[in-house]
Amino acid sequence: MVRVAVIPANWLVFAANLLIPIAILVFSLGFFPYKPLISGLATFEEPHNAPPKIFNKVIFMVVDALRSDFVYSNNSGFLFTQSLIRSGAAVPFTAYAGSPTVTMPRLKAITTGSVPSFLDVILNIAESDTSSTLAHQDTWLAQIKAKKEQLIMYGDDTWLKLFPGMFSRSDGTTSFFVSDFTEVDANVTRHVPSELGRHDWSALIMHYLGLDHIGHKSGPQSSYMIPKQHEMDSIVTQVYQAMEQEAHLQTTLFVLCGDHGMNDAGNHGGSSAGETSPALLFISPRFKSLGTGRQSPVDASRDFQYYRVVDQTDITPTLAGLLGLPIPLNSLGVFIPEFLDMWHIGSDRLHLLLENSKQLLRTLKQTYPNYRFEGNTSHLKPQNSLGKAHCAWSQARELLERRDETNGSAHQTEIETTLLRFLWASQDVMSSAASNYDLRYLYLGICIAGLAVLLLLPASYEVLRRYQQPGFFLAASVCGYGAMMFASSYVEEEQQFWYWSFTGWAFYLHVRTCQFRRDSSPAKSHKISHSLLRICGAAALTVSHRILRRWNQTGQKFAAEPDIARTYFPNHQGTLWALVMMAYADIYLSLTHKSSVSSFLWCLTCLVVTVVAFMYKLAFAATESPELITEFVPSHMATALKGVPLILYARLVMFGILLLWAIGAKFRRKRVTHEALTLFLVTQSRVPNIPIFLALRLQLRILESLNLTSVEVTVTSLFMQYVTFFAFGGSNAISSIDLSNAYNGVGNYNILLVGILTYVGNWAGPIWWVSASRLLRSRRPWDERQSHIPLLSFCVACALLSVMAACTVLRTHLFIWTVFSPKYLYTISWAIIHHLAVNLLWDIDLFLADTS
Amino acid sequence: MASQSLAPAQQAAPNSASTPSKPKSSHPPVSILSSQFARGYALVHPAILLSLVAYRFSSVVNDPVAELLSDIPFLVGLQVVYVMGCLPPAGAEKDGNASADGTMRKTPGPKRRGHSASKGSSWSTGLVTVAWKLTPALLSLTLTMLLATPTLALLLVLFGAPLTTHHILTFLCAAHMALLSAFPLIYAHGVDGEIWREIWGASRPADAVWGGALGTCLGAWFGAVPIPLDWDRPWQAYPITILTGAYIGYVIGMLVGRARWVFGKRLEFVPQGARDIKVD
């Protein structure tokens, strides 16, 4: 009878799982719209009438993650730069960098002046993607190139990917090896003296990565930070002195800016004040004539707003104006009015602002084709930003006509302020209108996801009804999770939800074990150690859970607080490596435990593979994170380890693990395949996270002793998957994606391999629990086990539905691009990669056996 | 959010625990004493506690350590009045609820002797009652401070309280929770190992004492919910919400535990199917 009831239900489950990717596809089409850009290059309408250019050349120095306070505050290493600010030779700003605060979108904003779409974040990760190049877009680089002048580029190779074929000389450094603080910068600096001596270029671009790497590695308070700032300051000194002394650099503009800032933990990608506030300085001895020396240094401020705040997109029209170039077509920037005083003739100043206004008006008209800008609304009270822009434009036109009539310099300042008001209002409109959602796709996607939930409802309801308490707990968690997706702080702090509800689940496990024990007659009681585990099993589970919870601080609010992986281990390397070795030894022991595979040879193979894997991790640490092994390994050994060819070695390790797995699979030893998988996951984890696997095994032992029913195993597995994802340092922010193990054994960039390894590196804990829960379930009766897939699918579909609904309802929310969209991306990976490709494939036998 | 994720315990109690307290159990639920004062005060007491929380809330936010510390004597006083006035001390249920329960507790002890002595003579004035109830009250107060507070502090840390900082606050929070939950438990049940095993397994029959204790812990658990919100309010600091939740949970648990439709029922968490597992 059960058989009959199960088959149609299972077809429903199968159909629902097919609907999940369809829902994601449809929703994404509406949520990440393709933004049409005006193609071609801008030209002056009347080239002979254009205002004279102030500068011939530009030296554009980007210091990655140069937060405003690194330059401006009391505690800064930029002493020479601060003296320039005092003398007026440097004009300082805080350049607001909108989210996503990662390098590639920010470079797009700096060069095109447009607001990048969220898709650029994904493309930033898939670095090889060529569709994101700016080769065919209008940028100030393209404008310089169009004048048949030369551009030079040293530093971050993102520029080379964005502008293929743009630079006559270049030397790119990859920003992949984050632990390198010196080489990346030395590679740029060594070119500076010779380039400063040459005449042939018009734009010299330098992009320094070291400061960003220090931030990622040890945060803004790192002891490396001030020396690095001194180093950057010395380059500013070098360039500025050359500008003063060399004749061919007399009319050179020097721009120093950060592409984005960093938060208190040294990461970026989100929209906290620290991340969105990089420094921006325009430097030239000529600016002294403006007579605007400013106080410097100034007191540190918590909101990082130093001097005047401009938008990062303003760099483009300002550079264009100062260098005498047409403003790039898609720019949303506003010429920075501080520099208007570089022109002394009123008509030149007006010309500049008018060019800027006409160009912005064109983009405005393109975005709002139905809005009529012709009518005169100067007397009306504007309702919204668009109305404000329209109103300012009408006023400006009126004033301009009157000026033409009087044919003189009347109304000069009035026109300037009106035009600027128009520019700022339009910038406001355009930045918020940067993304137009296709609501039909959004609703359709939600409907499909809702249908998937409905299809799963009968099967899951049946299970939940049969197993009331765990079923109720699961249902309550799913509802709570769904509701949580609508609150931005709960999305940022999602780990707290899982940690918190897991303690509740542990309480449930404790009570049911105690009561179960009481009910079963004492005569049945068996091995003492076993029953001891059962008495305090749940308590021990909670203790280990509490330790995992503190392993990696994650989220936003408490991210900078001390934890085990980043605070304790760097100062206690002996403990770290002892635990790591214990983890490897434990894997070896579990591999050889009760193995019936021909004994001695098997033990030897296991030993060799484990030791080789451990040595690989050691060599990897020696090159990648040398600060973790200074105490543990003598320095001469460390240098020897650095010489190891990592790629080859990694492939050897992978081959060994594959061998173990194949043997395990051949002899149908579930334990062996599980251990081989563990070894693989350990290899793909950061060194400070490796001891977590010891705790996981302890938890598995406890759970095995508790005799969980299949539904309880499913709920436990679900909780553990999420808990370990966050305990390994994951979060819902793009900045927390860990790429440090994504290239193990990969020689050339291969998007599929790197993608898989990135997924494994970030989802190591969840993958481990998928395999472990299969071990836990294997002792349960067959019909009970079938509840696993419907329940998991139900949870995933509900999570997907709630995230989609939250993204739709809150699509105008301030945090939509910083909190909710990243959450949607993470949900996609949970649903498609983790659920469909891992969770379901792992238990495919449950499925096949039924549907046949 | 809190409303969605109700604890299984709270929900499961009315749903699945349909079996009333089994007669085979020799540890029946504790009833409030039958005297006029006891019945009245058992209702007034939660109201006093809640108004105390509301009245002192702002000063707790301002200076949690000083305020929580200075509140302890008041809390002790209130709880002592409550347990002495409304609860039967350990080993004296029979005195409390007249002849509701035929089984006499078997634990011999000085208290029982004193009790029978007072029963023997006819001049059982209030003063003597207070005097012989004071000893168990003071004893259980000592045990609460010495054993229950560290245990609860440990539990708080296990459930996510900071381990390396905020030690004083954790202890003060645990002390408040212990006075709410453990003090009446110890007063009413003494150190009977079997009852405490039931408490460890959360399988006591519902009554005001156990309901209050379970409510305190559940309330503290739910109290953690607002902490991650980015409102940056001073009251979101640890452990203010947790302790407030504990107080509210205590009051709710205490009242619900006495309600007719809950009284005497147990949490039943043994899953279907778990019974027929062959233990390997």
Please provide a written account of the structure.
The complex is a heterodimer of chains A (852) and B (280). With 852 residues, chain A is mainly alpha-helical. Chain A folds into 3 domains: 52-340, Alkaline Phosphatase, subunit A, CATH 3.40.720; 343-436, no CATH class; 468-786, no CATH class. Helix content of chain A is 59%, strand content 6%. In chain A, strand 3 (150-156), helix 7 (158-162) and strand 4 (169-173) form a beta-alpha-beta unit. In chain A, helix 18 runs antiparallel to helix 20 (494-519), helix 25 packs across helix 26 and helix 25 (599-624) runs antiparallel to helix 27. Mean pLDDT of chain A is 83; it is low at 1-6, 127-131 and 521-528. Chain B has helices at residues 8-16, 36-62, 64-86, 93-96, 110-120, 126-158, 167-189, 193-200, 208-223, 240-258. The longest helix of chain B is centred in the middle third of the chain and has 33 residues, at 126-158. The radius of gyration of chain B is 20 Å and the shape is globular. At the A-B interface, helix 18, helix 19, helix 20 and helix 22 of A face helix 1 of B.
